UniProtKB/TrEMBL annotation:
Signal peptide: none annotated. Residues 51-84 form the Zinc finger Sec23/Sec24-type domain. Keywords: Protein transport, Transport. Residues 121-373 form the Sec23/Sec24 trunk domain. This is Protein transport protein sec24-like. Pfam families: Sec23_helical, Sec23_trunk, zf-Sec23_Sec24.
């Protein structure tokens, strides 16, 4: 569980917090195996015996005062009695995790019989759009064949297709058998048959270890739905088949109800991989994509604001059905046409899944992403709770979870991997703030309760009998991190303790929220105003603006680069880069609305360091493929020219680019050899990433370098087309300086 705060020394009261101009909060990556310093938790069992405060329900931790019979809560100060079993256990503190570490992970007892525990077979279902092209289906087959290699023994796998009908595959016999049920074309229609009546669920879900070859054979039979097939069905009276044919909404709704019958019996969590080649245009949940082609300017409508909200609540409601059925949906859209991900995204993010967007099959990393996603551990049925000491409280929470309808500051996460990150900001409980004289420090406690499926241990595949291979065990665990923070005596101490990457994380969450509610222009304005106010507060705090005859002198004296505070220095560049990012660029600049939605979903779950990389890419230079020249350059052409290095490596999180300058010595091998330092760096980056970045090699003067040059943003106009000009970062700072002058008058 990695936790990082915007400031490691908290403001003493609300006046100090407002005077700093900084967001106050933290990010948490609850299922990360280690903390932010690379230290793992103390593991143990009997989590249900961990004492809890009678007043605030916080868990006992190393910061609590303990005597023989009682303990004082480190969050609210309440004195709690110790039960007799705890007194006996705590008499030997060395063997007790909560006595030795403030970061613990304890096993909890499971409800239900032992037999129910061992029937927790992992279930995976691939739902494939066959209203598509041959290229799309070939690409999807490649991805699923990669996925089959990553699935653990004992897993069950189902294959379903959708178009103007739903197709269920039975792969447990000698040859794959396909059974279809037609989808009614209208948005209110329902299936004539339940899927259970078409094919019993346990006939549909096949054991991977015995049926892998037949699943692969079934994938080879996939063909796009043809115009001939649609015409023949239209001739039988289904005239509206010709109007469309991607009945995604009806198929998903039927599939969730189908799987839900075995939720809690055959499986504890089913993962559905939905492969989509375009917008749903048939049956329930069909979307009107004509809104993308409308001329908003002539109607005096903000296109960015018009295209960000969902056009129907259908997929948000469908996500609720998925959750109730124990289903998590990962949505893979491989398309360059407008698909309205603004409406579809809820199906994945609210069911605990991921949203992936690939503009074409040519450079898609779909097979690698599938394998990577299935090869890493995940927790499900998670509950996340953040508690604080009494002087302050959680304010807003950000991330792909849904709040508990009954309890405040309690979030439910359907499925969580080791990368998923969430954010909170803080408010003071009242005007008092923290005590200046008391020895008590602010305390934050984060509790994460989760379930994992543990595969059979101690047996190799060859040793397992067919009856024991499916015996996966559910394990419920409780992970708790308790942290104590210092308080800042003055604003200098606040500024000196800033973590600029966490500040960026909270800013990104806030501008995404503002964009969704009020449009991209409002999100940009919010960000711009924040930097102006922060710069003004900083100049005021350090007394950098001189007074002459009672008036503040003008902008020539304003420090817009935070030269007195190294921790704040990166922020103007990060804000500039965020304003240049497609997340906040305008519709008329050619930003596709689906790509904007994809970035919103991606950036909302990244940890602070990864997000920093996505907003302001890392650019380093090499004098040879084996020799690093400089570890960090600014994103400008001037930096490239002055460095004199022949090789540059740019890491933009989703894209990695190796660029050889046009003046590079021809004897330097291109592309870099597999055993060189640069290649090892690239491989390490790829291995640690949650998604598979696209890798490009560009030779300056010979190849088209546009992809690389587009990332050199510092000479680009923050509000314009992005073409290099006299504008750019320097001009942006001048504008901020003028705005600060006006603000401080």
């Amino acid at each position: 569980m990695a936790v990082r705060a915007t400031v490691s020394r908290f403001p003493i009261d609300i006046d100090a917090q407002e005077a700093s101009g900084l967001p106050w909060g933290l990010t948490v990556t609850p299922f990360a195996a280690k903390d932010e310093n690379g230290i793992g938790p103390a593991y143990g069992s009997n989590g249900h015996l961990l004492p809890r405060c009678e007043n605030c329900y916080a868990y006992f931790n190393t910061y609590c005062e303990l005597d023989q019979w009682a303990w004082s809560c480190s969050l609210c100060g309440t004195l709690n009695g110790l039960p007799s079993d705890a007194i006996a256990r705590y008499s030997n503190p060395q063997s007790i995790p909560e006595m030795s570490s403030s970061f613990i992970d304890l096993e909890l007892p499971l409800d239900g019989s032992e037999e129910e525990m061992t029937q927790a077979r992992p279930v995976y279902v691939a739902a494939i759009d066959i209203s598509s092209s041959e290229e799309f289906l070939e690409h999807t087959k490649s991805a699923l064949l990669a996925a089959l290699e990553a699935l653990s023994p004992g897993a069950l796998f189902g294959l379903v297709t959708f178009s103007h009908k739903i197709g269920l595959y039975d792969v447990q016999g000698p040859i794959p058998v396909l059974k279809n049920v037609c989808i009614p074309p209208d948005a209110e229609g329902s299936l004539s048959l339940e899927l259970e009546d078409v094919m019993p669920l346990l006939q549909f879900l096949a054991p991977v270890e015995t049926c892998k070859d037949r699943i692969a054979a079934a994938l080879e039979t996939l063909r796009p739905i043809t115009s001939w097939e649609r015409s023949s069905e239209a001739a039988q009276g289904l005239d509206s088949v010709l109007m469309g044919g991607r009945g995604f909404g009806t198929a998903m709704e039927a599939l969730f109800n189908y799987l839900g019958s075995e939720f809690g019996n055959t499986f504890a969590l089913a993962r559905v991989f939905a492969f989509l080649s375009g917008p749903p245009d048939y049956g329930r949940g069909q979307l009107d994509t004509s809104r993308y082609g409308e001329q908003y300017a002539s109607k005096r409508v903000d296109a960015d604001r018009a295209l960000l909200p969902e056009q129907t609540p259908f997929y948000k409601d469908l996500a609720t059905i998925a959750v109730q059925s124990g289903v998590c949906v990962d949505l893979f859209a491989v398309t360059n046409e407008y698909t309205d991900l603004a409406s579809l995204k809820f199906l994945s993010i609210e069911s605990g899944g991921s949203l992936f967007l690939y503009s074409s099959t040519d450079d898609s990393t779909l097979p690698q992403d599938m394998f990577r996603m299935l090869n890493r551990p995940y927790a499900f049925n998670c509950v996340l709770r953040l508690r604080t000491s009494t002087e302050f409280k959680p304010g807003n929470s950000f991330g792909h979870f849904f709040p508990d309808p009954q309890y405040e500051n309690l979030q439910h996460i359907i499925c969580c991997d080791s990368y998923a990150t969430y954010a909170y900001d803080f408010d003071f409980a009242d005007n008092t703030g923290f005590s200046r004289h008391s020895g008590e420090q602010p305390v934050v406690q984060i509790a994460f309760q989760y379930t994992v499926v543990v595969p059979p241990e101690g047996l190799s595949n060859s040793e397992m009998s067919s009856s024991s291979r499916g015996k996966h065990t559910l394990q419920r665990r409780l992970r708790i991190r308790t942290m104590q923070f210092g308080t800042a005596r003055n604003i200098n101490e606040i500024y000196d303790s800033v973590d600029h990457e966490v500040v960026l994380s909270l800013l990104v969450h806030k501008v995404i929220l503002a964009s969704l509610e009020d449009g991209v222009r409002e999100g940009r304005a919010l960000l711009h105003d924040w930097l102006v106010i922060l710069t003004a507060q900083y100049n005021d705090a350090f007394n950098l603006v001189q007074y002459k005859n009672g008036n503040k002198s003008m902008s020539s004296q304003i420090d817009i680069t935070f030269s007195q505070c190294p921790q704040l220095e990166p922020l103007p560049r990060l804000v500039f880069a965020l304003l240049r990012n497609p997340l906040l660029r305008f519709h008329e600049e050619g930003v596709h609305p689906d790509y904007r939605i994809y970035l919103q979903c991606l950036f909302s779950v990244l940890d602070p360091s990864s997000l920093h990389c996505g907003i302001y890419p890392a650019l380093m230079s090499y004098s040879t493929p084996d020799t690093l020249a400089y570890p960090r350059h600014s994103l400008s052409r001037a930096a490239l020219i002055t460095s004199g290095s022949p090789i540059f490596f740019l890491d933009a999180y989703t894209t990695l680019i190796v660029f050889y300058s046009s003046t590079a010595d021809p004897s330097i091998p291109f592309p870099p050899p597999q055993d060189c330092v640069l290649r090892k760096t690239i491989n390490k980056v790829k291995q640690e990433r949650s998604i598979t970045p696209k890798l490009m090699f560009i030779r300056g003067g010979q190849d088209d370098a546009t992809a690389f040059e587009n990332y050199l943003i510092e000479e680009q106009d923050v509000d314009g087309s992005g073409f290099a000009s006299a504008m750019g970062f320097v001009s942006f700072l001048d504008d901020i300086s003028q705005r600060v002058t006006e603000y401080m008058k």
